[in-house]
Every structure is written in structure tokens, then in C-alpha cells.
Amino acid sequence: MRRALHFVFKVADRKATIDFYRNVLGMKILRHEEFEKGCEAACNGPYDGKWSKTMVGYGAEDDHFVVELTYNYGIKSYKLGNDFLNIGITSNSVIDNAKKVGYEAEEMSDGKTLLEAPGGYQFVVCAGSKDGDPVCTCSLAVSDLQKSIGKMLAQLF
């Protein structure tokens, strides 16, 4: 079965971001790689210098959705686009973790909780537990829904 494997976030504050993923979301560092020069396929964006990627998630990349944190040395901030909305997580522990470390969480009208990682990426947490991967959604914004569905279906099948 084909599935989404990971999502890439460019992060300006690697330490604070990894602390959030580990101590609030409860994810684990799966692997970390350092690179001396920019990626020819623009994996790290339009940057030529030293960079790293850290894969974080709730389990192995083979059967869990993971997040790739791309860090470009010397870049102090990024402007977020309008394509990514949030990643949804089903968990009973994430909200408790946020409270324990004093992280601000916003209660939404539907009973879910909104958390914002350093750098502005958002996570929507639904209380509960589920077998397997706690990541349940990755929400994106599109300007033409029918065209986007067609492209996604073409990639999947």
C-alpha cells in the first residue's frame, strides 16, 4: 500500500525545534545527517552551504509518517508559505507533555488542541490513542482542489 512517507520542515532553531518534537510531541530522533554543501536536488532549499537533516517520528520510517527537519547553518528565519496547514496527532500524552514543560496550547472549538512548534508549524492534537502511528493527518491548502486531487491520484496509482 502506498502512503505518505514524510514531510519536510525547514527550521532555523534546531535545538528548540528538536526539544519540542521530543519533549512535547514525544517523538524520537530516528537519524541525523550532516552535509557540507547544498543538495543538487534542492533538498535543503536554495542554499549552497552546510546543512543537516534530522528525521523524527513515533517509530521506524518503514511504517510511520515522519518529519524531516532541515537546518541550514547561518539561516536565522524562514518565511512560511501557505501550503502547509497542520499535522494531526491522536495522543493522550502530548497535551500533558506540553503542560509539564510550560508550552502554550490552544483549545479549539471542536475539543482538539492546537500546538505551534518553534518556527510556526502547527499540530492539531486529538485526545485518544490508536494502534500504530499516532500521526493521523497531514493537512495542506490548495488553490484548485480538483486539479490537486488529480495530481495526487496520478502519483498514487
TrEMBL record:
InterPro entries recorded: GLOD4, Glyas_Bleomycin-R_OHBP_Dase, Glyas_Fos-R_dOase_dom, VOC_core
Residue stretches making up the VOC domain: 3-128
Gene3D superfamilies (UniProt xref): 2,3-Dihydroxybiphenyl 1,2-Dioxygenase, domain 1 (3.10.180.10)
Superkingdom of the source species: Eukaryota
TM region positions: none
Name the record gives this protein: VOC domain-containing protein
Source organism (scientific name): Clytia hemisphaerica
